[in-house]
Structure formats: C-alpha cells, structure tokens
Amino acid sequence: MEKVMYSATQPSGALTIGNYVGAIRNWVNYQSEYECYFAMADLHALTVRQEPAALRRRTLELAALYIACGVDPERCALYVQSHVHEHAEMCWLLNCFAYVGEMSRMTQFKDKSAKHADNINMGLMDYPVLMAADILLYQTDCVPVGADQTQHVEIARDLAVRFNNLYGETFRVPQALLPASGARIRSLQDPAKKMSKSDENPNASVFLTDDRDTVIRKFKRAVTDSGDRIVQSEEKPGVSNLLAIYAAFRGVSVADAEREFEGQGYASFKLAVGETVADALAPVQAEQKRLLADKTYLAGALKAGAEKAHYAARKTLSKAYRKVGFYRGD
Ligand code: ATP
Ligand code: LTN
C-alpha cells in the first residue's frame, strides 16, 4: 500500500521564509513517493480573529503559493480544509478521547493564550485535536512540519493509539518529518523566538511576498552577536540563525556555509544571505502572481482536491463511526 503524507498551513497571514523552508518546500520532494494531501487550514485559522475578506483572499493566495512552490494538484489532493466536512466531524469524535489536561499543557496553546488573552476560545484549546483529525482521517504515515508542530503530531499519535487500544485497529499511527535544515528559523530581531507570521515587528520576519530590496534590508538589519566570527554556536544565536537560513536556501550544510564565510565580516555575510534568499524567492513570487490571475484554474484544482480528500476521509470516518457503535442504518 502506498504511504500517505499529510500537511497543512493556516491562511492566517503572509507566509514567512520559516514556513517555506520548514514546511512547504519539503513537501514537493515527496510527491512521487507518497500519496499526498496538502491543505489550507482555514478551520484552524479561525481560532484567532480573522478579517473575513482577508481570510478568503489569503486562502486562495496560499493555494497559488503551494502550486508555485511545486505542489502538483494533479498528483496530490490540494484542498481547503473547510471544504471537507469530515474534518469537523472527526474532530468531535476525537474530542471525546482527548483530555483537557493534556490540551492545556500544549506549548502553542499557552503561547497563544498569552498573546490573545482577550480571546482564549475553545477552538484555541481544541486546535491539536482538529489537527489530529486532519492527520488521522487520511491514514497518514508522515507529517512534514517545522519543529514547533512536533508536539501536536505527538498528540495525534497518542489519540490514534488510545482509540486503537479501545476499539481495535482503526487509525494508522503517524510520524512527524522534520527538514534536514531550517526546522526552526528564528526571528531576525530576537533569535530567542521563532520567526512567525504574526510577529508585531515587521523586521523580525521575512515574508515570501517581500520584494528584493525589503529582503536585503531586513537581513542587513538582522541582529548579530558580539565578536566577528561567522560560526554556529549557542553563544551566537543571531549568526547561527543566519547560517541556518543560508544553508537551507543554498542546500548546503552549515559547516560548508561556515567555511564559505570564514574571514569575512558581518556586513558582507548579511548581504550574501539577503541576496541568496531574494534570488530564491523571485521565481516563486512570479509564478504565484501568474497563477492568481487564473482564478478558474485555481477553483477547479481545489474542487478536484476536495473531492479526492472527501473520498478518503469518508472511508476512515465511517470506519471510526462503526467502531464506536453509531447506528449506521445497515
Ligand atoms: P503563527 O505565527 O500565525 O502561529 P506560523 O508562522 O507558526 O503561524 P503555521 O501556519 O502555524 O505558521 O505553520 C505552517 C508550517 O510552517 C508548520 O509546519 C510549521 O511547523 C512551519 N513553521 C512555522 N514557523 C517556522 C519557523 N520559524 N521555522 C521553521 N518552520 C516553521
Ligand atoms: N497547525 C499547523 C497547520 C496544520 C497542520 C495540520 C500541519 C493544520 N493541520 C495537519 C500538519 C498536519 C501549523 O502549521 N501551525
């Protein structure tokens, strides 16, 4: 049986280079080996207030970006999460097996509760269960994500095992798959934090939509550390982050990057990183723009993706409904 891969990102803001190297870019290489499902997680995005028109626009932009990065809608199921109602249904089922205690201990829940103290809604706490529903619906083997999401993939595993132990083999137990480099890109202004779409400081994150000058300027302004050596070390989180970004975009090891910049100063190093990133983003941006001009094509691709996903999801949901004892009329 073919192995299954599942991943998603939220249409909750402009994507950063962290989302790109930590997640989306890596999906592409697996398309021929795995049966792939890639979603725009709009149900997840609603856990934080979204402006309706912006959410709608970003969902389509994200789809175009996936395709621009090389996701092939002919080979994968590329779809919008809310188009496949089984996600919400499976989430309910799994909710009845997830404990409040374990959900309240999730790092992301704690972070987002602190950040959105005026809106700690049930969805925010339920976020990992919905993510488990996404993953388990497709009998997923592999979940390519950045390091911040491994805790959530662990929950999906725990829920699968818990359910299987109670009702017999129902769900495949998934595994997170981290990229070799770029699993945790850090903020350019505060390398103690991860680079995030929703950082309030626009210079902290490089967005996939940033033009060349903006990319280069942000890297020029990136915080570095004391000293002048360009090496990876715990005492040099700023330089280490820039090395990791360079290595991820160049497809080289951090050790190779260190050798390349040996003896150079911070200024020329930062310029080189900025230029490398800008060069890599330009073709993706151009392709995304081209795709966004053809809304009919995008709508058709997403409709086909949702149909394919619905078919697979329905199978697993029916199986789980039978196992728990729901009367199915037969
Ligand atoms: P937000 O800041 O709004 O919570 P986010 O930037 O974390 O959003 P998500 O949509 O939650 O973005 O994540 C999409 C994917 O990108 C996930 O697989 C996540 O692990 C990965 N990712 C996010 N930030 C980084 C980062 N700084 N480095 C590497 N991967 C990342
Ligand atoms: N929570 C994820 C997005 C996401 C996801 C998924 C990732 C929603 N459902 C299923 C992998 C598998 C995030 O990246 N923040």
Tell me the number of helical segments per DSSP (H or I, 4 or more residues long). 13
**CATH architecture label name of the largest domain:** 3-Layer(aba) Sandwich
SSE succession: EHEHHEHHHHEHEHHHHH
* Average predicted confidence as pLDDT: 95
Distance between the termini: 29 Å
Q: Which features would summarize this protein structure in a list?
A:
single chain, 330 residues, mainly alpha, Rossmann fold, Tyrosyl-Transfer RNA Synthetase, 3-stranded parallel β-sheet, 5 strands, 54% helix, binds adenosine-5'-triphosphate, binds L-tryptophanamide
Describe this structure in words.
With 330 residues, this protein is mainly alpha-helical. The protein folds into 2 domains: 205 residues, Rossmann fold (3-Layer(aba) Sandwich), CATH 3.40.50.620; 104 residues, Tyrosyl-Transfer RNA Synthetase. It has 13 helices and 5 strands. The protein is globular and about 75 Å long. The site of adenosine-5'-triphosphate has 22 residues, from helix 1. L-tryptophanamide (LTN) binds next to strand 1 and helix 7.
